[in-house]
Amino acid sequence: MGEFTQTATVTQQETVVQPYIRYDPEYVRTIPGIVKIVCIVLNLIGFICIEFSYFSYRPQGSFFNTVAMLGFWFSGIMLVFYLFHVCEKFHKIPWLKIELYFCVAWTLLYMIAASVAAATSIGAFQAAAFFGYCAMVGYGVDSFLKFQAVRAGEIAQGSRTVHVQQQQTVSTLTA
């Protein structure tokens, strides 16, 4: 009378981590590590440009410095977490998604902060704007790398393998 098809998909996921804190300097030689260090340096240079200006008290400078220092501290803490494998120890926390959201937000905030600083006629603010635009590009690259990793189902440190098996059953019904 008819044919009945049933498909079952079985997904197995294996996560391999070493759950102890240890120092690993190899992270700074990876592309995400280099991008993170570049962002930290650019945050600091932009902050210094504004802070050593006579006009650092102006709202444009305060906003730029807030963006720069929050970026500096977040990126610096994440760098330490990666260097000491804290992200691997706590692999159940979605580190890549947290970093992805932060990097996207900081790309946009740096675009605004650098544009506001560049619109002034103060030389130090314009220098800071240059480093702000560079940091914007750095955070944009980091956003792209994190997006690709999240999309691929990776974890921040360690390894995850996914095995997908499909089983199909065909039954014939007759009357």
Automatic annotation (TrEMBL):
UniProt membrane topology term: Multi-pass membrane protein
Coiled-coil spans in chain: none
Keywords from the named record: Membrane, Transmembrane, Transmembrane helix
Major subcellular site: membrane
Keyword Transmembrane set for record: yes
Annotated protein name in UniProt: AGAP009132-PA-like protein
Transmembrane intervals: 37-57, 63-86, 98-118, 124-141
UniProt cross-references to InterPro entries, sorted A to Z: Marvel, MARVEL-CKLF_proteins
Cellular compartment(s): Membrane
Gene Ontology CC annotations of this record: membrane
Domain (MARVEL): residue spans on this chain: 27-151
